[in-house]
Write a structure and sequence with these properties.
There is one protein chain. Helix content is 82%, strand content 0%. The protein is mostly helical and 79 residues long. The chain starts with a helix and ends with a helix.
C-alpha cells in the first residue's frame, strides 16, 4: 500500500493535479489501457490498475462506450 501512496504523490506533484483527475484523463479521455497508460505515466502497470479500481473508473469507461455505441447506431440509422 505504501508503494501506491508514493506513486500517487509523485504523479500529483508532476502533473499538478489530483490522482483521480490524472487517471480520468489517461484512462477515460485518452482511452488508454493499463499497459500503455502506465508506460506513458512512467508507473508500474499494477499501480495504474490499482488507481483505476480505486476511483471506479471502469464503470465510467463502460458508460462512455455505451454512449458511443448508441451515437453510432443513431448515425447509421440516419443514413
Amino acid at each position: 500500500m505504501k508503494d501506491y501512496e508514493l506513486v500517487k504523490k509523485q504523479l500529483e506533484k508532476e502533473h499538478k493535479q489530483s490522482i483521480e483527475d490524472i487517471m480520468y484523463r489517461y484512462y477515460i479521455e485518452k482511452d488508454l489501457g493499463p499497459a500503455v497508460g502506465a508506460k506513458e505515466l512512467g508507473i508500474p502497470r499494477r499501480a495504474f490498475v490499482y488507481f483505476v479500481q480505486q476511483y471506479r473508473l471502469q464503470a465510467a469507461k463502460y458508460e462512455l462506450i455505451k454512449k458511443k455505441e448508441l451515437n453510432f447506431g443513431e448515425l447509421m440509422a440516419a443514413l
